Amino acid sequence: MAIRRPAKPRPAATESDDVATDAFISGAPDSRQESPAERPKKVYPKKGRRIQRTITLTEDMLNKLDELAERTGQSRNALINVGILYVLNNGVGGVSNNGS
């Protein structure tokens, strides 16, 4: 068993520590509670008329998507767009895109 020095006691927090902590936290970019209208619009890389985004898929989903792309002669991206359009037009899980 190792011999260890006793831990030094921490000084009690002062009011100026609390003020400094609050200032630090309120200075964080995500500390403000903005409405969606107040948030700056995100800028994404463009490819022609389209905006490029990154998605995360499981390996199994990617394999199935690639198999379907090969069988149908469509690109992986085209199939992803078809799926997104289908959900936007028809809704998902009993929820339509028009809010009903």
Automatic annotation (TrEMBL):
It comes from the Bacteria. Residues 31-41 have a biased composition (Basic and acidic residues). It comes from Breoghania corrubedonensis. InterPro entries: Arc_rbn_hlx_hlx, CopG. It holds the Pfam family RHH_1. GO terms for biological process: regulation of DNA-templated transcription. Residues 1-48 are annotated as: Disordered. Transmembrane segments: none annotated. Residues 54-80 form the Ribbon-helix-helix protein CopG domain. This is Plasmid segregation centromere-binding protein ParG. The lineage of its organism: Bacteria, Pseudomonadati, Pseudomonadota, Alphaproteobacteria, Hyphomicrobiales.
